[in-house]
Amino acid sequence: MKKYASLCFVALALILIAGTGCMKAAVTTPAPVSEKINTESVSQAQTSSPAQATAVPPGVPILMYHKIGSEVNNDAVISPAKFAEQMAYLHQHGYHPVTLDELHGYLTEKKPLPLKPVVLTFDDGYRDTYEIAMPLLKKYGFRSMMFIPAGDVGKNISWGELREMKAAGMAIGSHSFSHRDLDQLTRQEQAAQIKKAKELLDRELNQNTQWFCYPNGSFDETTKKLLIEQGITVAVTINPGWVKAGDDLLTLKRVWVGNGVTIENFAERLTRPDYRPVN
Prior knowledge:
Layout: H1 2-27, H2 33-47, E1 54-55, E2 62-65, E3 67-68, E4 77-78, H3 80-92, E5 96-97, H4 100-109, E6 113-114, E7 117-123, H5 127-140, E8 144-148, H6 159-167, E9 170-174, H7 187-205, E10 211-213, H8 221-229, E11 234-240, E12 252-256, H9 263-271
Parallel strand pairs: 2-7, 2-12, 3-4, 5-7, 7-8, 8-9, 10-11, 11-12
Antiparallel strand pairs: 1-6
Helix pairs in contact: 3-5, 7-8
């Protein structure tokens, strides 16, 4: 009898254990496929980076720099300290330097640009554009444009250094062949200045040069027609002001920046198309 009771106890225990296992299995039943998909979608949304905000601005300042150095009483020069201060200001206040190609899309088709757009341009091909400007621009990830007289390459900056600058985000545009006042030349002389410069830059930098800067701001209607013949799409002047959608692409205004521009003046030039001149 005792043996029979023991067997019954063992059987009862086995039944209880089996029942517990079934309950556990029910608790760990996988969620429906639809729930899994929803969970994955939430995960992807949380890990994806937000797209950069864009808008169609009322206007864009094209900043114009020349030499970065220690010369005083020359407003075509800006000290290295002031230049560094201005680049830091752009970075800290959320400005986004855009290319002239992006600007072209805005000017012709009102294409949106990143918020707080600005264009950085450097004229003449000074050595300090390579030694001072480029490292700072790389630090902040700023894109820019340098206009150089093609016939002067090798004097201050080599072709190899120009290729390095391109790779770092600084596009290279034409400043004519030898930086002569174009409105003082014959049509044939102007054509040679424009064509020779483009052909040389195209060949050495493996590009289609479509950007031009008038030497000393000099041009006439003949100059503009010759630029069009050579496939130039954008040309900048030294005339003051911002650019806006619908402007003449071959007479774009720029904002002068030199030693006389304090950080307060600089901030105003970035926020007011009618910025006040520096006395």
